[in-house]
Amino acid sequence: MFRYIVRRLLQMILTFFGATFVVFALMFANQDDPVQALAGEKPVSASLREALTERYHLDEGLLSQYWYYMSNLLTGDLGESISGREIGTLLEDSWPVTVRLSLMALVIAAALALGAGVWSAIRRGSVFDNGILAFTLLLLALPIVVLAPVAQWIFGMELGWFPATASRNASFYALLLPALVLATTVVATQLRVTRTSVAENLRADYVRTARAKGLAPRRVIWVHVLRNSLIPLVTLIGVDLGVLMSGALVTEGVFNIPGVGSKLAQGIRTEDGPMVVGFVSVLVIVFLVMNLVVDLLYAALDPRIRYE
Amino acid sequence: MLGKRPWRMAAIAAAISLLVAGCGSGDSEDPTAAGNTVVIGISEPQHLLPTNATDSSSAQVLNSLFYPLVTFDAEKNPVEVAAEKISVAKGNRVWTIKLKPGFTFHNGEPVTAQNYIDAWNYGAYKPNAQGGGYFFDRIAGYADLNPLDPDGDGPEKAAEPTTNKMSGLKKIDDLTFQVTLSAPFASFKSVIAYSVFFPLPKAAFSSDGVIAKGFEENLIGNGPFKMKGSWVHDDKIVVEKYADFKGVVPKVDGVTWKIYGDQMAAYADLVDNNLDVQTTIPTDALANAPADLGERFQKSENSVFEFIGFPTFLPQYKNPNVRKAISMAINREEIASQIFLGSRTAAKSFVSPVVSGYRENSCGEPCEYNPTKARELYQQNGGPKEIKITYNVDGGHKSWVDATCNQIRASLQVNCIGEQEPKFAVMQDKLQKHQDIGLIRLGWIMDYPLMENYLNPLYGTNGGSNYYGWSSAAFDTLVKEGSKAATPEASIKKWQEAEDILAEEMPVIPLRYGQNVYGYSERVTNVEVDLFSRVNLYELETLA
Amino acid sequence: MSDPTLPATIDTRPRSLSGDAWDDLRHSKIFWVSSGLALLILLMAFFPTLFTSANPADCTLSRQYAGPSGGALFGFDYQGCDVFARTIHGAGNSLWVGLLATLLAGVIGLFFGMAAGYFGGAVDAILSRGIDIVLGIPFLLGAVVFSGRLSGAGDDGVTAVTLTLGLLTWTSAARVMRSSVVAAKGQDYVAAARMLGASPARLMFRHILPNAFAPFIVVMALLLGANIAAEATLSFLGVGLKGDAISWGVQIAEAQKHARVAPAPLIWPSTFLAATVLAFIMLGDAVRDAFDPKLR
Amino acid sequence: MTDIKAQLDVLPGLDPRAPLLQVNDLHVEFRTRDGVAKAVNGASFWLNPGETLAILGESGCGKSVTAQAIMGILETPPGHITRGEIRYRGVDLLKVREAERRRVRANRVAMIFQDALSALNPVYTVGFQLAELFRVHRGASRADAKSRAIELLDQVRIPAAKSRINDYPHQFSGGMRQRVMIAMALALDPEVLIADEPTTALDVTVQAQIMGLLAELQRQRNMGLILITHDMGVVADVADRISVMYAGRIVEEAPVYDIYARPAHPYTRALLESIPRLDLKGQQLTAIRGLPPALTAIPAGCAFHPRCGYAKEPCRQDPAPPAYAVAPRRTARCHFFREVLGE
What we know:
C: 11 helices, flat, transmembrane (chain A), BPD_transp_1_N (chain A), MetI-like_sf (chain A), MetI-like (chain A)
């Protein structure tokens, strides 16, 4: 097992370079005129354009730009964004709130998916099962673009249960509403997958044995059946955490949370290569770590799966 | 391996993550609660160094930290503020600026002429790549600081500037300095009102011509407020009253500039009274603003001018009559009231009403909505079967472009589509390559309140924003003569003649003038927003 | 001649999985309701004129937010266009984008997941890390690059949006498929099939796939719903459909801004979208339950 | 062993003198979409301590359903017990509330299943699944439960029990897994053990070991054993009495030697004739004509009549033949049992 983890860590380094190059290439393909993008609609004087092009090697090829970026990165200097701010500080500013927001959303979604998923698997075809199905599908079908502002308007402004917006170091309570909204984007899939997996396991012979051992239904479900049906849910949780971090763009916008999502969007809009790659590098690391944890959880959950 | 109980595993994981989520609760105190201070909403400024800051958010913050040389009275004429006296020699080339005595920077340094000279030189010096650099292009010696690349994108690099001091700037004594322009310009006094011309203390420079690291996060200015803590990016900038400020003392003790990524989020806080002033209420919230804010929802003039440019380099748009027909097919009043709910007014001339010399309806008949005449004229002159209006998607223009297209379709019976370009830069690039992207949506905000600041950049042959390839020698000479004219009144007469040529040629379709549409909370009163969409910090008052 | 001693009631027709499945489906109410709804929506997508004769593009500002009148059952929206006509005509693009993108994501997800799960070792490492890289690519970046580069003049952006969604949303399907293949690979029946000389391809698709299919189908059905809704987010971010293309996503992104003043132009397309998602997912569920002998 | 054998008074009204287990006229039906399947149509039998009753019949005749009904682990819906009694020591288990019924399960009446691999939970160690019984039913501490589990594994002769306690089911061979099942069933020292085809999935040599182990453990604990099988060979050397089941009914019941010597029901006779014997080497094996009836449409009268050589007119009409007393402690449901006996 230890050798497996070491091998996975080595792979991470390769993947890290792969990911940064892919994103750099995408940003390069997306680059038209970063200097103008920065100035928005104001005209850009020739001298300003030349100076910035020079400083950020904007006129050079993809490979040389990537080389500049990587040589700086290896010396620990994440470089400067085109708007002149240290990318390191940008990361420090936006990651904490994003980690908190996405973790809260994930815990809420996983808890709901687990609880309702198991319950609707037991009561397949019941009113609860179909009710939960319809509710989660409605959440899924309502684009986040509609859900976030409506949630803010109803719970934030009209009922006043939550503050309408949250700042970078907002309190746990202030982040609750955005976390709930974010949770809706992943809860539907997690719940359905759990429901299917539990339903499938309820048919297994060991459940009959467990009943024959005189165990209470609660124990049969929550000890014996659950552990066998967690693998699909765990897989999704691994993927969803990263998706929540980079995909929270709309929710962060509506609730004015300066997180990774909105910084990425800003970077992409102003064609700011170094900034976007800086963020994506950290994101890819999160995905890599999460996927390693998920793969280890496979082995923990199902002894038949072994890694040499 | 992980113990027998999956439940213990899950519980531990959930606990850890909630702990992490909860721990960063930091200062969630409500910024508005503290006494006689106000919270004003802005978007994240790109830069705060005066010579590098050209967007409206940074201008607002700088306006609180610095004291402008000049400002404008009700008739939009320039009036001295930090300057004692600004005089100009005959020929409108040599300007002498005398400062009021006794002013100090927030760190105690006295304000001297040298501060202005160092700041302006820093701004103009090309390697510093300052966003506001082009404001100094009229001062003699600017060219030495900005040698141009001889062959454009070619291999040759531009030469290094030989000096970082402009010859046109000369210190007379501690409180007076002289500015010599490369060409006479009667209204230079209006130009130096802009925030780019603020002074910088010696403390700003770590060595000659090099800004100290972190200065931008902890600005030291000569204005009524000074920084309290440093600039917390994407969160807030807090300023408090500067005790021994010699100028006009504002009524509030401090301002928290709260940074919003999205205007709708700011509006939500405004309605919730978490935010005291929002200078631009987003169009999407206009429908509910009167109901939500009542009489705390107000409007005031600003310099925004929206128009559609014709790609005159394309054959189908060469004929002025075709351009006039399209202009007559658009009902400006209906769009202004139905789409913008009165937050914009119909534009019937080529410059903004805020500049002196503006004439009501200088465009005349082509700007009147007359569908039947428009269709006749259009068909007589063989207008194209399909009209495209291109706009950059990240500016929120989709709704009014679609509405305009629907009107054109109804009036001229031709197909009309709103074409989205992901970025403004892509649109510009296609225009420079004379590609057929149809009509182009454009807008302009003035740098200083002069007709020239509309005529030259938008319609001048090598105007910075003249993307439609329209040029008229007669127009250019009239504008130049206006600039050189002895008195501002003479300049205006020349500029108005130039505008008449525009009415004849119709290179663009004037659509709308913008307005400041702003709102404030129940905690404040006397809220005024000026021409540059800046809150007047001196009149602003909190209710007890 | 059937054997006289056999009790007449035994059904002697040969029984196949699909035969049993159809038998099952015929009885389930959900199947009929969802397939009926899906058929209606498909009909709406391909033959909008059956439902409304009004021209969705004929909008006049004077009718802004006017109430329902004559053919316009849902009233008029912000631009004064007939909401009913636009919703019906919008079905085409929404479904087209939703189905195609999900199909593309499904195929890629299936192959990546199956290969990674089945071969394991180096192949699994490369493919899984490839999945991590694609997960790392921010959704908006992919959308901006595709919509910027792909759509020539005049194209309404459908190909760009479909590619964006298709190439970026297959990762969770791949991960779920991989995890169920990894679990299924260890079963005895796979060893037995291999012992009988089944080729890897046959092993994968004839033996492992049916057993690893249940969670995959669930994720795919949900992905269809998510993709149709995602098109709205893309339109909101300005990288969705272009020109005068109509879809529920475009309608929702537009109506969302004025929802507090005029909720109707938002409610109707969202309801249609929710109904479509519900229909296809219930259909997916019913079919999956029928085809999965274990859940009999 | 005995220290944990606290005789919990699991159920009120237990009568030590009453028969250990008495099943009277049990009816179970499954309501499926294709109609109502009558899996059990009036099964009756009884069991005394230390006795082994074999329930014999082809697959699909309702023997497993009967076992599950006794254990009370039938899934309702679709399975429903419509009539009959299951008396354990005089108490009808069908009338008992589920919470109390659960205390009887594995405590007093235990069961082992056919395929031990799928019957054991693949993701928990064997130790956990064994210790669980003591922790849940006896509230034993983790350590006590673990030591009891190791003891049990020794008892069922699993080598190196102390180290294997932390292994998972897939790490055991077929025979070993079945021993674990037996250990699990006997953990709480039940009075009745129901073995549902315990050795069908095993090869012959392991089969003999398992049956030997069962017999030995039964003798030690004076346990009642119900052996459900379709294998006549296994029954011969283990069972005391045999009940032959067909289409959900006990068609014949008798001591094991009587049945082998002189079967009283045509179905039993046909079963015996179809056992391959060495002396018939090279000859065509006799098989029973036709197929067992679909449970949704059981023929009227004696369910076996369509396949029965002796069938005459009365066999085809309702009511089904009663359980005639062929001899003391022996019955058969066939109007012409004398004829079957005679030959």
